[in-house]
Amino acid sequence: MALSLTARVVGIPVRSVYWVWLMAGEDRSGAPCLYTTMGQGDSCGPLFVCQIDLQTGACRSFRAQLPNANYPTTAIWSRRRRGLFIGAAYAGQLYRFDPRSETLEALGAINPQQATFPCQIDEAPDGTLYIGSYPACDLTRYAPGTGEFIRYGRMDETDQYFYPVCGADGTVAGRVGFTRPHVVAFDPQTGEHRAIGPVADANAREGFVELLKCADGLLYIRSHAGIFRVQGLEARAVEVLPPPRPDFDDSQTSTQPLPDGSTYRFLDRHTAEFRQIEIIPPLSVWPLGANRRRMIYLDWESDGSGLFVVRAGPDGKVYGSSYLPEHFFSFDPLTGALLNHGACTINQGEAYSIGQLDGRLYIASYPNGYLSVHDPAKPYRFGADRAANPRHLGRMDDTACRPLTMVTGPAGKVWVGSIPDYGMWGGTLAWYDPKTGTFGSHRHLLPDCAPHTLAWLPELDRILVGLTIDGGSGTQPRAARAGLVLWDPAADCKTWEGDFGLRIRTVYDLYALGNGLVYAMIHHFNPASRMELMLLDLRARAICARGSFDTDLLGTPMQLSSFFRHGDWLYGATYKGLYRARFGTTAVEPAWDAAAAGAPAPTAPGGLVGATWYFGAAARLMALSLPGASN
Known about the structure:
Elements: E1 7-11, E2 18-26, E3 32-39, E4 48-52, E5 59-63, E6 69-78, E7 83-90, E8 93-98, E9 103-109, E10 117-123, E11 129-134, E12 138-143, E13 148-154, E14 161-166, E15 172-177, E16 182-186, E17 193-196, E18 209-213, E19 219-223, E20 226-231, E21 234-238, E22 263-266, E23 276-280, E24 294-297, E25 307-312, E26 318-322, E27 328-331, E28 338-342, E29 350-357, E30 360-366, E31 370-374, E32 391-395, E33 400-408, E34 414-420, E35 428-433, E36 438-443, E37 450-457, E38 462-468, E39 484-488, E40 493-498, E41 504-514, E42 517-525, E43 529-537, E44 542-548, H1 551-554, E45 564-566, E46 569-573, E47 577-582, E48 589-593, E49 604-609, E50 612-617, E51 620-625
């Protein structure tokens, strides 16, 4: 039976937005204005559309009604329809904002039970919309005039992402991602689709394929094998690529200017603040030398950004990261100060792992496995220069994408285990040496597997690596089983691998007890899929004890490491609450059930400060006081 514990809300550390598209449009009267779509985190709040006054920056917000329509992952302004169309994840819905009625309307499911994440919308010359989605790599056509959806199904049998583009000549094609990037052409008259042109291999890092709309309005493939024009269901080689003319630039800002020719952009997109827009009129309407630029400041309001990871710092404070965008925050239990410090990396994803070494915090972030270092004792100013704090240190290797796990200290280094990039298999164990500023990395510790959790065993002078069969996003596992690896940090090499006779899918979490003993939360297939808490003896290479883990009762263990010791108990977190086992045993019992206690369930693993466990629940930082003395 779970303990009677009460969680309290500390506050909402971060109120930002993500998947922000900026484009020109018109208001109810037909006057020009700007629109931006803004997403909020899972379970934090629905996406919303901001209609922006060009003179004052005042925002009128219109919210989606479906609770899981959190992210506007793709959006376009249709000049033909004089309205805004939005693809919403993870609801898989198509939305329309009509400025004349000033309503944001859900038009329906893009592809029910299949499409959860709309990848891209484009408008054909006849005014119909083509929408590609994840995870089914599917294509759907929507006719705004009739409200009809026509669903064509999968465009590729292996990959999961599809990005359609429509040419001025009626050609429709899409880029497939991410394991074998290539182009699929589609015939709107017959519904036939066909793979055309070159094919790249993301895992082997061989080739590249891009699908472009160019200044002539036609579609082209730019690739390792040359340039091709897409015509109907064919790819025809050409010598010269016309200037590309995408509908949106790399900053998700429309290339369509305002009616007077003015261009526009967010000045603070790089820090994911989205409060400052610069409007630049064309040179023709201003005398030479005049200050043409003007600024507007936006007043939108967010419900809050989801928290992804929460950890205890070296100074008794709590630190963590929001996700999409990644803002770094801190909480001081002594003063009650809860601060959003802003960007801590050049990414806008999220920190997956945070560790401390010599009084500094090391932050490993998605995407690209970038590493930053922060000294909590010094003023906060993110940058890449040597005086910056946090300081961007760089990408740990060219494979890492999701840096799930970190240990600090072995051989004086920071060690990070990562899932590989999109479309790839075989994650990396990478290190950073603060003394020399150098990186090192090793891939495929077990073939096509990736590190999922790390533990430092100082008595053996080894790092224990728990692996998973999972590959990067957009892949299906290729390895039949994962396992564990012992790594010598001084020699920087593997000294043992094994699986204790288990067909392991994922080693979720590890906790070292000393004397070669380690707790491990393992998902394996012996004989059927099951989760178990095991006590492993790495000296004897034996399982000392094992206990069944009832996910129906306790919940699914968190993706990121959640083990911690409090008193004589090992605690761990699931998406339902906390469980525990008395030290030295594997008999698991519920410690705290969030729903039964009337509290929000954990969504981000936490950090223990004294006898209080801090964790994330959607956008909220929560605190849970535990019974017994702290360690």
